[in-house]
Amino acid sequence: MGRRKVEIKRIEDKSCRQVAFCKRRKGLMKKAKELSILCDVDVGAVVISNRGRLHDFSSTNSLTGILQRYEGHVESEKEISAEIKVAEHSKYSSMKMGELLQTTERQLEEPNADSLPVTDLIHLEKELQTTLMQIRSRKTHLLLEYVKGLHEREKMLQEENKLLEDNRARIKKNINVNEMSMDFTDLPPPHILCGQERVTLDFL
Question: Model-level pTM greater than 0.70?
């Protein structure tokens, strides 16, 4: 009998809830340790019980270091999002990528390029960064789609190869059966064999 599927909802019984918490907390920490070892990554896990007790795991010597790195990534993401929002309100945001590049190149080649307002240069820089991010995102998406197509093609070729192998085995089996049938048909009828044996005995 298989294990009964546990419904994911709050366990009402207090003692059962505490037992489940202890078991699953240990399982979570074990999985975090295995992930850090198998994949050679830095892993940090923090669990706070309903009583306020802290349980943590760190694959490095310091969980604080992992949390600081996490906060740094979050702050970087916020700054990028803020820059994108500012760039969206610039006068260049309505331009397409080609138009933006042509405008930037044309303005930088003008004799009075040094007199361009700083705000315009900042907007241009942010627009170019945003466009570059979009290009990289599009490139990554296309590469993933290409790899996915290769995997599907590989799977289809494997299925076709298996089908050919099955057909080959079936044809080989049929040839063997036909050869056995031809061997039996080459034998003379039983009454002729008996007659030949009788003539041989009479001769003796």
Answer: no
